[in-house]
Amino acid sequence: TPSRVAKGAVDHTKMSLHGASGGHERSRDRRRSSDRSRDSSHERTESQLTPCIRNVTSPTRQHHVEREKDHSSSRPSSPRPQKASPNGSSSSAGNSSRNSSQSSSDSSCKTSGEMVFVYENAKEGARNVRTSERVTLIVDNTRFVVDPSIFTAQPNTMLGRMFGSGREHNFTRPNEKGEYEVAEGIGSTVFRAILDYYKTGIIRCPDGISIPELREACDYLCISFEYSTIKCRDLSALMHELSNDGARRQFEFYLEEMILPLMVASAQSGERECHIVVLTDDDVVDWDEEYPPQMGEEYSQIIYSTKLYRFFKYIENRDVAKSVLKERGLKKIRLGIEGYPTYKEKVKKRPGGRPEVIYNYVQRPFIRMSWEKEEGKSRHVD
């Protein structure tokens, strides 16, 4: 019938229009795919650049984004089926994953840049300058922009005194640019780690920095070097420093309680030096009165203390003790391990009837020191 023929013609016309529209869509998809592949090749080339350069938006990508915006505004409201990738995920999902990875890389680059220059970040300073004061510290030709209130919260440290009572009494003064030059001789890497102490109470030893170097910086800045403050991977070096601190405190106690009384006894008898041997609590000294040891040991003084014996067993502790004695003004200091006769084992008769006494010797620590003032002068003529 005429109506059926007319309806068929209309349907045929719609199909033709749909086919033409579909062809136009396919042609546009091919152009978009070509642009995407060209942009992905640009991204691959761009990923080989340094992270900071990769943050800059390339002209190709910007042109592609603008083209995508134009197409999205003219795209029909009905969603177009997405082409599935071999692994089952859609191409748009892969594209979004790639974009997400790219944005994550850019974010990490920016974050790492802020971490390296965290105390001189202009954006951070502009954001917080309204709520807190900022000062610029120059350490090892590096500028650190910090809030001085973190220093005054630790008033017993050097920086706490400088920006606390020191500024109040005009002792701490900036240079002509209004910047403060502090911590002379300390590297910027070490100082950056030390600034974390004022923020978190913990100093993490940076890679490539030795524990003695960090310890020297902490001593200079009057920051306590303790296990609760210092975190590092080299536990051996950290324990060595802590042992040195413990050895110094322990020897100062031994010096006052055990060694000094014997030094006073020698001084009261007119001596200007003393030789002290440290024996254990279980050692027994039994010399033959008729045949004593012939090594001048009768002038030695004895301390019976297993604790002090164990203390001097370590050469590092002997070095610490020697440094303490030097600081206290003593001279000719010798510390070591030597044989000490304890009891007579037997008596041999030499040819001619002369007896030879054999003693049992034990290896024990000894201390020898002097407080003589004129030891450099000649002993022959006064």
From TrEMBL:
It comes from the Eukaryota. Residues 1-111 are annotated as: Disordered. It holds the Pfam family BTB_3. One of its GO terms (biological process) is positive regulation of phosphorylation. Residues 74-111 have a biased composition (Low complexity). It is found in: Cytoplasm. Keywords: Cytoplasm. GO terms for cellular component: cytoplasm. Residues 47-60 have a biased composition (Polar residues). SMART domains: BTB (SM00225). CDD domains: BTB_POZ_BTBD10_GMRP1. The keyword Cytoplasm applies. The keyword Ribosomal protein does not apply. InterPro entries: BTB/POZ_dom (IPR000210), BTBD10/KCTD20 (IPR039886), BTBD10/KCTD20_BTB/POZ (IPR039885), SKP1/BTB/POZ_sf (IPR011333). SUPFAM superfamilies: POZ domain. PANTHER family: BTB/POZ DOMAIN-CONTAINING PROTEIN 10-RELATED, BTB_POZ DOMAIN-CONTAINING PROTEIN 10. This is BTB domain-containing protein. The lineage of its organism: Eukaryota, Metazoa, Chordata, Craniata, Vertebrata.
